Amino acid sequence: MSHQTGIKEELYCSATAEVKKDVERDFDKLVAPVIEDDIPCYILYRLDTKISVGYAWLMISWVPDISSIRQKMVYASTKATLKTEFGTAYIAEEIHATTKDEISWEGYQRHKNAFAAPAPLTTREEELVELRKTEINTEINTDTRHQTLGGIACPLTPATEKAIEDLLNGTYDYLQFCIDLEGEEIQVSQAGAIAISELPKQIPEEHARYHLYLFKHTYDGDYLESFVFIYSMPGYTCSVRERMMYSSCKAPFLEKLQAFGIEIVKKLEIDSGSELTTDFLQDELHPKKILHRPAFAKPKGPPCRGAKRITKTQELS
């Protein structure tokens, strides 16, 4: 606009057209002819909808990629002025187009759909959405999962309950559990008697799992058998739903294990099986105690203070 600092160009109306049928059918017929491949322009297109001040208008900023830098700067600088002069209240929608497919009726619909779509969610927001999806249904029976203050209690399959009983009877010393995300129940996926050196190989690298291991070891000359519960989660290689289900079902599942009579001495959360070594489990179950706590040593004074001075009080005559 001529009154803007540094801009000597003036806006003028290069074309007008009358409504023929309706907004949708007129759009491509009226807009396409005024578009030039390399020359930017503004297009004000009246819509059928009415607002408080009258008909709503669509403002299209056509600035093709091949237009010069100066043209792009001029049109970017004058857009606000044009809206003010035309009447900002009348402009209900805006489109900034750089290719011709964006300035068609189909492109306009894509723009509206994208504008109406919800904003991208953060990881935390995705987890909250998935958590809401896993909320309890109104139909409740002994086999359905139910939500508690500590999470979501998924039912155990009969095979899982049998494996836990066999673990208590000494048949196994290691059980691995997985959650069936479709059926929303906890299944035993692996059972066996393994040495501690074989434990890291049992941890999947792409899926979350629960593990229950009977750690047989000695401490201070005593032979001990301690149940260790391990929750393995290999980071973000798992889906959001899988992460949320394993996190939400852990506490209720631990309660069920304790109901079977399993006293879990230690609960661990890991992202890699490489952490599971004998020394690691020993340190987790029996942390080293600091027997000697050195007393606070008073800092010494500065050296070479010099000889102590004696001040003699003079008697007044």
UniProtKB/TrEMBL annotation:
<dbReference type="Pfam" id="PF00241">
    <property type="entry name" value="Cofilin_ADF"/>
</dbReference>
<dbReference type="GO" id="GO:0010591">
    <property type="term" value="P:regulation of lamellipodium assembly"/>
</dbReference>
<keyword id="KW-0009">Actin-binding</keyword>
<dbReference type="InterPro" id="IPR028458">
    <property type="entry name" value="Twinfilin"/>
</dbReference>
<feature type="domain" description="ADF-H">
    <location>
        <begin position="151"/>
        <end position="286"/>
    </location>
</feature>
<keyword id="KW-0206">Cytoskeleton</keyword>
<comment type="function">
    <text>Actin-binding protein involved in motile and morphological processes. Inhibits actin polymerization, likely by sequestering G-actin.</text>
</comment>
<keyword id="KW-0963">Cytoplasm</keyword>
<dbReference type="GO" id="GO:0030042">
    <property type="term" value="P:actin filament depolymerization"/>
</dbReference>
<dbReference type="GO" id="GO:0005938">
    <property type="term" value="C:cell cortex"/>
</dbReference>
<dbReference type="GO" id="GO:0030016">
    <property type="term" value="C:myofibril"/>
</dbReference>
<dbReference type="InterPro" id="IPR029006">
    <property type="entry name" value="ADF-H/Gelsolin-like_dom_sf"/>
</dbReference>
<protein>
    <recommendedName>
        <fullName>Twinfilin</fullName>
    </recommendedName>
</protein>
<dbReference type="GO" id="GO:0051016">
    <property type="term" value="P:barbed-end actin filament capping"/>
</dbReference>
<comment type="subunit">
    <text>Interacts with G-actin; ADP-actin form.</text>
</comment>
<comment type="similarity">
    <text>Belongs to the actin-binding proteins ADF family. Twinfilin subfamily.</text>
</comment>
<dbReference type="GO" id="GO:0003785">
    <property type="term" value="F:actin monomer binding"/>
</dbReference>
<dbReference type="GO" id="GO:0005884">
    <property type="term" value="C:actin filament"/>
</dbReference>
<feature type="domain" description="ADF-H">
    <location>
        <begin position="1"/>
        <end position="113"/>
    </location>
</feature>
<dbReference type="InterPro" id="IPR002108">
    <property type="entry name" value="ADF-H"/>
</dbReference>
<dbReference type="GO" id="GO:0051015">
    <property type="term" value="F:actin filament binding"/>
</dbReference>
<keyword id="KW-0677">Repeat</keyword>
<dbReference type="GO" id="GO:0010976">
    <property type="term" value="P:positive regulation of neuron projection development"/>
</dbReference>
